[in-house]
Amino acid sequence: MDKIVIKGGQALHGEVQASGAKNAALPILASALLADGTSIYRNVPALADVATMLKVLRTMGCDAERDSETTDVCRVGVNGHITPEAPYDLVKTMRASVLVLGPLVARFGRARVSMPGGCAIGARPIDQHLKGLKALGADIHLTEGYVEATAKQLKGGTVNFDVITVTGTENVMMAAVLAKGRTLMENCAREPEVEELAKVLNKMGARIEGAGTSSITIEGVDGLKPVEHAILPDRIEAGTLLVAAAISGGDVLVKRVVPEHMDALVEKLREAGCTITTEGSGLRCKAPQRLDAVNITTTEHPGFPTDMQAQLMALMSVSQGTSVISENIFENRFMHVPELHRLGADITIQGPTAVVKGVKGLSGAPVMATDLRASASLILAGLRAEGRTDVSRVYHLDRGYERLERKLSALGADIRREKA
Ligand code: EPZ
User: Is 188 a catalytic residue?
Assistant: First the structure.
C-alpha cells in the first residue's frame, strides 16, 4: 500500500486547477443506462471510485471506458443485452454503485443490486432509496444481501423523503424520468451534484423541474437519448486545496471552480482570517501564519458540507482559540481525530461534537488514513507539522482525489508518494 510523505513548513504559492466532481460523475455515469447508444462525458476525474463505476457498468454488459489513461473523457455504450445486476464484490468497494438501481428498474424493469453495507463513516442505510422506488410502483425484495427490484412499468407518484439523502434523491430521480405520469419529490437534497444530474437527464430528453431545491417535479417520458456532457468542477477537492493554502499560510489560486457552490466554506475561511477573492472562475485564498478558531456545524447543502469537516478540523487544530465542530450528517466521521492527536492536536470528542483547542504547532509522525476525507485531513496537517509525516493507506485518498500530492507539490509543498 502506498504512502504519502510530507515535510511540513512550506507556505504554498501558485495556481492549481480543480478536477471534475466525483459526486457528480458517479450518478451521471450510472444515468447512461437510461438510454440506448453511447454517451460521452468530459472532465471526468481519474479516481478509483470512477474506475469502479465503469467496472460495474462493464459487468452489466456496457462498453464503459476512459478514452485513455491521460484523458478526462469517458464513454458509456449501452447497446444490446444488459444484465441488470451489481455484484457484492464491487458494491462493497463503492457504495455509490447503488446508483444503478433506479436506472435499471426504470429501463429494464428489474435490478439485482447488492446492499452496500456500512462503511467507515456510518451505517449509511438505503431505506429512502427503496421507499422512493416503491412509491413509483417497484416491487422490492431483500434476499441474500441483495435488493431485487422489479416493475413492469414504473408509475409517477409522490415521494416524501424522511431523511435528506443525496444519492437517494438521485436514484429516485433517475427512476422517475421513465415512469408513466408525474412524480413529485419532496424534502430532496439540494447539492449542486443533484442539479448537475438533472441537467444531464434533461439534455437526454427528461422533463425535470426544481432540481437544486427541496421540491422536484418530473414528467415521465417514453425514452431518453445518449448525451455529451462536461462534468462540473469538484467543490470538495477545490475546498481542500483552499484549506491547503490556509493551513500553510500561503497564497493560492484554485482555478475552474463554481464559487457559488462553495459559499459556506468560503464564509468560514474568511471568518477564520483568510482573504478569499474571486478571480474569473477561480478562488484565491491568502492566509496569515495563524488563523482564528471558528465553529463548524455540518448540515445538508447549502450548509457547511460534511465532506469538508475533517479538513477544517486539521486547520482548526493549529488556529488561535477553541473551535467546536458538530458533525450532524454521519454518526462516525471523527476517525481522523486519533490520528491528528498523534501529530499533537488537542481535540476532545463529545458525541457528535469535537472540541478543538488550537495549538501553536504540530509535529510530524506516521499516521494512518481511515477514510477518504480523513486522508485529506492528515495530509493537510502534515503540510503544517514540523518534520516528517507519513500518511499510510492512501488508497482511501485515491478514491476521491486526482493526484493530490502532485497538485500540492506544484504549489511548493515538500510531498511525495512512496510506492509500498
Ligand atoms: C453523498 O453520500 C456523497 N456521496 C457523500 O460523499 C456525502 O458525504 C453525502 O452525500 C452527504 O453529503 C456521493 O454523492 C457519491 P446521504 P450519500 O444519503 O448519498 C442517511 C465523499 O466523501 N440516510 O446524503 O450516501 C445517511 O445514513 C462522500 O465524497 C438514511 O438514513 O449520503 C446519512 O446519515 C462520503 N437512509 C444521511 O442520510 C437513506 O436511505 C445523509 O446521507 C439514505 C441516507
Answer: no
**Phi, psi for 52 (deg, rounded to 5):** -65, -40
Which one from 62, 74, 119, 274 is the annotated catalytic residue? 119
Distance 167 CA to ligand 1 centre (A): 7
Other Cβ atoms less than 10 A from the Cβ of 69: the count is 6
pTM: 0.98
Cα 341–Cα 344–Cα 347 angle in degrees, nearest 5: 50
Q: Please measure the distance between the N-terminal and C-terminal CA atoms of the chain and give it in whole angstroms.
A: 5
Q: Is the shortest distance between the CB of 47 and ligand 1 below 6 Å?
A: no
At residue 122, does pLDDT exceed 90?
no
Closest C-alpha to ligand 1, atom 22:
307
Domain residue spans of the chain:
2-19+233-419, 22-230
> Which one-letter DSSP state was computed for residue 308?
G
The domain made up of 22-230 has a fold known as UDP-n-acetylglucosamine1-carboxyvinyl-transferase; Chain (3.65.10)
CA distance 179 to 159: 13
Mean pLDDT along residues 11-16: 98
Nearest CA to ligand 1 atom 14: 23
Q: Does the structure show a pLDDT above 80 at 265?
A: yes
